[in-house]
Write a structure and sequence with these properties.
single chain, six-stranded mixed beta sheet, four-stranded antiparallel beta sheet, mainly beta
């Protein structure tokens, strides 16, 4: 059974880069046809899709976040990662990694504050 687990710092200072990693177990991130996303939910708001990395390494980003977002992968560790630059308190949210077949990690709270 495929499982996803987010990891990374829970507190980031304004203007810094937020970095999170999603470790996938029970399946390979390079399996043909699969895609792996980052999604976030700010407090009191709805879910926001941030971007995706496809099984072949291709990436696609939300237009509103594209200038600050980068998604990469480490196939040797079966992980994919999110980097969000120049963060502000508005980037405070629960961050989730998810597969395109409806499997999600438990989410990790990231707070942007000095």
């Amino acid at each position: 059974q495929v499982q996803l687990q987010e990891s990374g710092p829970g507190l980031v200072k304004p203007s810094q880069t937020l970095s999170l990693t999603c470790t996938v177990s029970g399946g390979s991130i390079t399996t043909s046809g699969y895609a792996w996303s980052w999604i976030r939910q700010p407090p009191g708001k709805g879910l926001e899709w941030m971007g995706v990395i496809v099984y072949d390494g291709g990436t696609y980003y939300s237009p509103s976040l594209k200038s600050r977002t980068s998604i990469s992968r480490d196939t040797s560790k079966n992980q994919f990662s999110l980097q969000l630059s120049s963060v502000t308190p508005e980037d405070t949210a629960v961050y989730y990694c998810a597969s395109d077949v409806g499997l999600w990690g438990q989410g990790t709270q990231v707070t942007v504050a000095s």
